[in-house]
Design a protein that fits this description.
Elements (H helix, E strand, L loop, with lengths): L4 H4 L13 E9 L2 E10 L5 E7 L7 E8 L5 E9 L5 E9 L2 E6 L3 E5 L6 E2 L6 H13 L4 E5 L3 E14 L2 E11 L6 E5 L5 E6 L2 E5 L6 H23 L1 E2 L3 E11 L4 E11 L2 E7 L9 E4 L4 E4 L1 E6 L6 H6 L2 E6 L4 H13 L6 E4 L1 E5 L10 E2 L2 H13 L4 E4 L8 H10 L3 E4 L7 H6 L4 E3 L1 H9 L10 H9 L8 H12 L3 E3 L2 H9 L18 H6 L12 H21 L13 H13 L3 H7 L2 H6 L16 E5 L13 E6 L2 E3 L1 H7 L14
Parallel strand pairs: 9-10, 17-20, 17-21, 22-23, 23-24, 25-26, 25-27, 27-28, 28-29, 29-30
Antiparallel strand pairs: 1-2, 1-15, 2-3, 3-4, 4-5, 5-6, 6-7, 7-8, 10-11, 11-12, 12-13, 13-14, 14-15, 16-33, 17-18, 18-19, 21-31, 31-32, 32-33
Helix pairs in contact: 6-7, 9-10, 10-14, 12-14, 14-15
C-alpha cells in the first residue's frame, strides 16, 4: 500500500499569534483501533512542530516536522525528517527569504523568485496537520485559491458541517475539499477555530485523542458529499446509447485466435452482442452507427486485484477496464460502491467480489473479519458464503494450521480460496492444504527464500525478495518441482508484478518506472508524488534489487510456459497500473495475444463468466474498448483508448481524463449530436 496524497503532501498554518507552547494529541485509527498518533505542538513563537507515525502491518511513516507561516498562513519555513511509509529516508527543507523560495529534499530541489510570499509550498512528506495548514491558508486567500510551489494551483470549498460530541463536549466540524493536489479532492475536517479535527479515510482515520466514536458519523457525511460529486461527474460524462446500435468499420480482436479481423461490424441489442462480421454482412439499417474508422476493438480489460472505491471507477473505465475483482473490502462499503456503479451515479466497472479473512494480531490487515480462533474463522466463512461471495482471500496472519480446515470449509460451499501465504508457512504447504490461487509473485519467491525466523507479516516479505530474489536459480530442480506442483494442482498465480518492479527499481528522486511513460500526461502534483521511492535504494543495493526485479519477470515467463494460469491484477493506481502489468508480461516474454487473452476471456473463465463476457461474439456483453493502434503489434496501444462501452453506456476516455486533470492519450471518439 502506498500513502494517499493526504499523507504524502505537507501543509502550513494560519496565525502567528503569540501563545504559550500547547500540545494536542490525535489518534490514528485503523478499524476503530488506535494504530498511531499525531502530536502537534504550537510554540510560543508561532511555529508548529508535529510528530506523526502509524503502524500498518509493520509499515508506516515516522516523521518529525516543523513549520512557520506568515500572517496569511503561507509557509516561510518547513522541514521534515524521518522515514516514509515503506521506509525510504525523508529529509526535506523549504525556506522563503528575501524574495527567494528554495526547496531541497531527497527527491528534488529547486527555487522560485517572488517579491511577496504569494504561493504555498507543497511538501513531499509531512502530516495531516500540514494539510490543515494549507486549508487555512486557502481559506484566507483571495478566491480561496493559491499557486503551489513547486507547481500547480490549489483551491478549497466547504461541503458540510457536522456537530459531534464526546464526554459531554460538542464540536462543530466542517468538511472541506481541497482541489488541485490529485485526481480527486482531498478531504479533511476542521473545527470552529479552523484547527485540524479529523480525517475520514474508510478503514483508517484521524481524530483528537479519545474521540474515535465520532469518526463513523464524519465518514458517513463525507461519503454523502463525495457521492454527490461523483453523481454530477457521471451525469456529465456518460452517453446513453439506444437499445440497438452498430459499431462499424473496426478491427475486431478475436481473443481465441489471437488476431484482428479487419473491416468488421458489431451489432448490439439490449447491451448484448447480437452479431459480428464483415462490414457488408451485418444489417444496421435504421440503427445508430458508431464509426470505428479502422480502430482496434477489444473486449473490456479485467483487473483481477483491486480494493475498489467509488472514486476509482472513472480511472478504471478510462483505461478500458470494464471488470474488476475486489480482493479485500468491507462488505457494506463494497456493496454501496457496486450500487453506485450499477445505477450510474458513479462511473465504474463491473465488480466481482471476494470475501476476506485474517487473524487478529499486531500485523492484521486493516479491514474486517479478523478471527481470534479457527472457529471464528469458520464462522466468517459461513457469513461470507451467505452474503453471496464465491471466493475468499486469506491473509498473512492466519495461523498455518487453520489453512486446511478453512480450505475444506470454503470448498464445501463451492467457493475458491486464495491469498497471501500465511507467515510461517511455505507456498508449497499452502497449496497442499487447499490454496486455489496465490496473490503476489513475491509469495512464490518466499517459498524458497523465507526461513522459520522470517516474519512475512511484516515488510520482510518485500525486503527478503529484493535482497535475494536475483540469486535464486530458477532452473533448479527445487523451483521446477514447485512449478510442476502449481500445474498439477491447477493453482492460479496473481503476480501484481508492477508493484514489485516499481518497489525494487524506483530510486527516490526519479519518476516511478511504472508511470514514467505517462507522467507528462498527469496532473503536476500527481507526477511529483511519483518521485518518492518505496524502498531505500542506493548505490550499494541498486544493482542487486534490479536483478531481483528481473528475476520476477523470468519466473512469470517460466510459469506461463509451464501452463500455470496467470491473472492480471494490480493492487495499485487504477487503470494505469494494469497497462504497466500487461506491458511487463510482454517484457517477460509472453506474446501480446496471450497477454490480451489472459486479461480478457482468461479472467472471465476463471470466475465462471466465460460464456457471458470477455469475447467479441454473439451473446456476450458489449463490454468493449476502441483503441488507437494495434495491441498485437505493440502492447502500449492499450493506453490509447478512444472509447469504452458498457452495454448502452458509452464513455470517451479523453473526456474522463480531462475531468481528472489528465492530458488525453487518444483523440476523443466522434459522436453524432
Amino acid at each position: 500500500m502506498r500513502l494517499t496524497p493526504i499523507l504524502a503532501f505537507a501543509f502550513a498554518l494560519a496565525s502567528t499569534a503569540t501563545l504559550a507552547d500547547t500540545t494536542v494529541h490525535y489518534d490514528w485509527l485503523t478499524q476503530g483501533e488506535v494504530s498511531g498518533e499525531l502530536v502537534l505542538t504550537r510554540h510560543d513563537d508561532g511555529a508548529r512542530s508535529v510528530h506523526f507515525e502509524f503502524n500498518d502491518r509493520g509499515r508506516g511513516p515516522f516523521l518529525d516536522t516543523r513549520f512557520e507561516v506568515d500572517g496569511s498562513g503561507r509557509v516561510r519555513h518547513f522541514e521534515s525528517r524521518g522515514k516514509a511509509y515503506m521506509g525510504a529516508p525523508v529529509e526535506e527543507v523549504f525556506t522563503y527569504e528575501d524574495g527567494v523560495a528554495e526547496w531541497r529534499s531527497t527527491l528534488e530541489s529547486g527555487e522560485a523568485r517572488s517579491v511577496s510570499l504569494d504561493a504555498f509550498y507543497l511538501a513531499n512528506d509531512s502530516s495531516p496537520e500540514y494539510l490543515a495548514a494549507m486549508a487555512r491558508a486557502l481559506l484566507a486567500a483571495p478566491g480561496q485559491s493559491l499557486p503551489i510551489w513547486p507547481v500547480g494551483t490549489a483551491s478549497i470549498e466547504k461541503l458540510a458541517e457536522e456537530t459531534v460530541a464526546h464526554n459531554g463536549e460538542s464540536k462543530l466540524a466542517s468538511l472541506y475539499a481541497i482541489n488541485g493536489l490529485g485526481f480527486d479532492p482531498q478531504y479533511l475536517w476542521l473545527d470552529e477555530e479552523q484547527e485540524l479535527f479529523a480525517l475520514a479515510m474508510g478503514w483508517m482515520g484521524l481524530v483528537p485523542q479519545g474521540w474515535a466514536e465520532v469518526l463513523p458519523a464524519l465518514d458517513a457525511r463525507q461519503q454523502s458529499a463525495e457521492r454527490a460529486q461523483l453523481a454530477d461527474r457521471a451525469a456529465a460524462l456518460t452517453h446513453e446509447l439506444p437499445d440497438a446500435y452498430c459499431l462499424r468499420d473496426f478491427r475486431v480482436l478475436d481473443v481465441d485466435a489471437g488476431r484482428l479481423r479487419d473491416a468488421s461490424t458489431v451489432r448490439v441489442e439490449d447491451g448484448l452482442i447480437k452479431a459480428v462480421g464483415a462490414n457488408d454482412s451485418i444489417d444496421c439499417s435504421g440503427l445508430s452507427v458508431l464509426e470505428g474508422q479502422g480502430r482496434s476493438l477489444i473486449p473490456g480489460l479485467w483487473d483481477m486485484h483491486v480494493h475498489v472505491g467509488a472514486t476509482d471507477g472513472a480511472l478504471h473505465v478510462a483505461a478500458g477496464v470494464t471488470s474488476v475483482r475486489d480482493l479485500a473490502n468491507t462488505h457494506e462499503r463494497l456493496m454501496e460502491t457496486i450500487g453506485q456503479f450499477q445505477d450510474g451515479t458513479a462511473i465504474g466497472p463491473d465488480v466481482y467480489r471476494a470475501g476476506f479473512i485474517d487473524a487478529a494480531g499486531p500485523f492484521a490487515a486493516p479491514t474486517g473479519n479478523l478471527a481470534e480462533s479457527l472457529d471464528e474463522a469458520l464462522g466468517y466463512i459461513e457469513q461470507i458464503h451467505e452474503q453471496g461471495y464465491r471466493h475468499i482471500k486469506i491473509y498473512s496472519s492466519i495461523h498455518p494450521e487453520w489453512v486446511a480446515p478453512m480450505a475444506a470449509a470454503i470448498h464445501e460451499r463451492g467457493m475458491r480460496i486464495s491469498g497471501h501465504v500465511p507467515s510461517g508457512m511455505s507456498a508449497e504447504a499452502a497449496i497442499r492444504d487447499g490454496f486455489d490461487e496465490i496473490q503476489h509473485i513475491n509469495m512464490v519467491f518466499l517459498n524458497f527464500l523465507a526461513g522459520p525466523d522470517d516474519d512475512t507479516r511484516t515488510p520482510v516479505r518485500f525486503v527478503l525478495v529484493a535482497e535475494e530474489g536475483g540469486d535464486l536459480d530458477l532452473d533448479s530442480e527445487e523451483v521446477q518441482a514447485f512449478i510442476d506442483l502449481l500445474v498439477r494442482e491447477d493453482v492460479v498465480v496473481d503476480p501484481t508484478v508492477a508493484i514489485f518492479d516499481d518497489m525494487f527499481r524506483h530510486r527516490s528522486g526519479e519518476v516511478s518506472p511504472s508511470y514514467a511513460m505517462i507522467a507528462d500526461h498527469l496532473p503536476p502534483n500527481v507526477r511529483r508524488s511519483m518521485l518518492g521511492g518505496r524502498m531505500d535504494i542506493n548505490e550499494e543495493n541498486a544493482e542487486r534489487y534490479a536483478a531481483s526485479a528481473q528475476a520476477l519477470l523470468d519466473m512469470i515467463r517460466r510459469l506461463h510456459e509451464a501452463g500455470v494460469p496467470l491473472v492480471a491484477g494490480t493492487d495499485a493506481l487504477p487503470g494505469f497500473t494494469l497497462h504497466r502489468e500487461l506491458e511487463l508480461y510482454v517484457q517477460a516474454g509472453i506474446p501480446n495475444a496471450e497477454v490480451l487473452r489472459l486479461a480478457t476471456i482468461g479472467s472471465a473463465e476463471l470466475l465462471g463468466e466465460g460464456d457471458a463476457v470477455g469475447r467479441i461474439a454473439p451473446g456476450y456483453r458489449a463490454d468493449l474498448v476502441a483503441l488507437d493502434g494495434d495491441p498485437l503489434d505493440d502492447i502500449r496501444a492499450i493506453r490509447r483508448a478512444a472509447m469504452t462501452l458498457q452495454g448502452q453506456r458509452l464513455y470517451r476516455p479523453a473526456d474522463i481524463h480531462r475531468a481528472l486533470g489528465i492530458k488525453p492519450f487518444a483523440e476523443p471518439f466522434e459522436l453524432d449530436d
